[in-house]
Design goal:
Strand order of the largest sheet: 1-2-3-5-4
Radius of gyration: 18 Å
Protein name: Phosphotransferase
Helix content: 40-55%
Number of domains: 1
CATH superfamily: Aminoglycoside phosphotransferase (APH), C-terminal lobe
Order of helices and strands: EEEHEEEHHHEEEEHHHH
């Protein structure tokens, strides 16, 4: 019998691994609905769905290893990063999913709310929050919606050599700014942004990608604190905000 590995666990969700099977448990069936439908619609490699018995979704493990981990140097080649960019481009070129996404107006309101919480609770210095909120203003504009993954963290992209073998964790997928996916992928490894863009093959606004780095940091702080994670851990949200200074 394989050991049970706890991949992630907090009051809203948990993911367990038993051998080559991942068991995802989510108290919100709507997130799982999105994950299942997004994987069915995405024209790129995704995990095989073995079965679903709410609140549990069973997925087969994806071949290969993650592109990297936050807070650690990536050992993946430049070609692997470029392959990730090319794969994300395929997703962004696909037909839009039927459900709606966040609007620029929604984003502006969310940023103001989260910045207010950070300052009211003395989590970060006001100068750091104010500067990153100013940078974040760059993304508060109309954007061309694409089919985005929505949480394209580096450890959600799996590769074998220079081939992307699968992208996991689709519960945040929907319509959104394509710059956002590339920002989430590279926020902890900005030195690989050029590789990703080379593989993506279409000019995107690098300043907007960098502004999304600030957005990602500001929006993530409260969630991390309230769910028992350390926003000051190496490579996480606070590091990303400090880098923008």
């Amino acid at each position: 019998m394989d050991q049970i590995e706890i991949v992630v666990a907090h009051p809203e969700r948990a993911t367990l691994r038993v051998g080559g099977v991942f068991l995802k448990i989510d108290i919100d069936p709507g997130r799982t609905d999105i994950e299942v439908e997004a994987m069915a619609l995405a024209p790129i490699p995704t995990p095989e769905i073995l079965w679903r018995n709410p609140p549990v979704l069973a997925l087969a493990a994806v071949r290969g290893a993650a592109l990297g981990r936050l807070g650690q140097p990536s050992t993946a080649s430049a070609a692997a990063w470029a392959a990730a960019g090319a794969t994300v481009r395929q997703l962004h070129d696909a037909p839009l999913p039927p459900w709606s996404g966040r609007s620029p107006e929604d984003l502006a309101a969310e940023l103001d709310r989260e910045c207010g919480w950070i300052l009211a609770n003395d989590v970060l210095p006001a100068k750091l929050v104010t500067r990153n909120r100013q940078i974040a203003e760059e993304v508060i504009r109309p954007w061309r919606s694409a089919f985005i993954h929505g949480d394209l963290q580096i450890d959600h992209v799996f590769v074998v050599g220079d081939e992307v073998t699968g992208i996991i964790d689709w519960s945040e997928a929907g319509r959104g700014d394509p710059h956002y996916d590339l920002a989430v992928l590279t926020v902890g490894h900005p030195q690989h942004l050029d590789d990703v863009l080379a593989g993506y093959g279409v000019d995107l606004d690098v300043d907007v990608i960098r502004a999304w780095w600030s957005v990602r940091g500001l929006l993530g702080i409260r969630w991390l604190v309230e769910h028992g994670y350390d926003p000051f851990a190496a490579g996480s949200e606070v590091d990303a905000l400090r880098a923008r200074m």
